[in-house]
């Protein structure tokens, strides 16, 4: 149940009012977007909710009285002036601009006399928050519209417990940390980063290089291209044999001999690699001595 101000209750009881949806999106970088489905901009709580850049329509919402995740479905129809951080709205959505964004929907009420032809000033008590959550899915993004699904905060209850499972491999991500508690892999990435160039006759998935390291050294690591047709791209390395990188995913264009590359070592998460390759056993967070199921029975 939602509590509303007595003046708003009086307005609703009169039956003579206009209604508008107000949408607030908070992007991961902190940018805040304000939209309304009303035919005029609305000034409410110190912010102007725009109607010119995009038409955001509320399609449906579901609420449940259990721990199931509530959902809200929106449709965005961009207009000529619609931009998100300087990028056309549909292109920005395809690029992930709203991925993980917080979305809040308010419903505002006003008397017809409060709806002029310029901008509507809505009293602070005349809008009620009806849904808040996180953007979960944006699809499809078509030529003229995009559909957005927002999940309520109850989705945060859908997590694995315990957060960390016992297993033989280390749960740290290579080169991460230390965090606020001093945890993490803590290996310095600079000590395991090497520059060189492609050599021989590279293909889109096999890159011979001039970097000399033992077989397997860059397996599960990264190769970045610093010049040539793939400059700025990077790929994960599935294997490293005879100073040659074999890629998990092919490149769009085959590099040529002499193109600059940067190679970053990889880790197979085993205790042996953590000890011999990185001298980092003190930060190893795997449990290689836990008996396998067959041995425990």
Percent in strands: 35-45%
> Would you identify the regions where 5 or more consecutive residues have pLDDT less than 50?
none
Write the H/E string, N to C: HEEEEEEEEHEEEEEEEEEEHH
| Main sheet overview | 7 strands, antiparallel
Description:
- This protein is mainly β and 297 residues long.
- The chain folds into 2 domains: 6-157, no CATH class; 160-297, no CATH class.
- 8% of the residues lie in helices and 35% in strands.
- It has 4 helices and 18 strands.
- It has helices at 6-14, 89-94, 271-276, 293-296, and strands spanning 18-26, 32-36, 42-44, 47-49, 54-62, 71-78, 83-84, 87-88, 102-110, 120-122, 127-141, 146-152, 193-197, 206-208, 222-225, 234-241, 244-247, 260-264.
- It has a 7-stranded antiparallel beta sheet. It has a 6-stranded antiparallel beta sheet with strand order 13-18-15-16-17-14, with no helix packed on it. The protein has a 3-stranded mixed beta sheet with strand order 4-3-10, with no helix packed on it.
- The protein is elongated, with a radius of gyration of 27 Å.
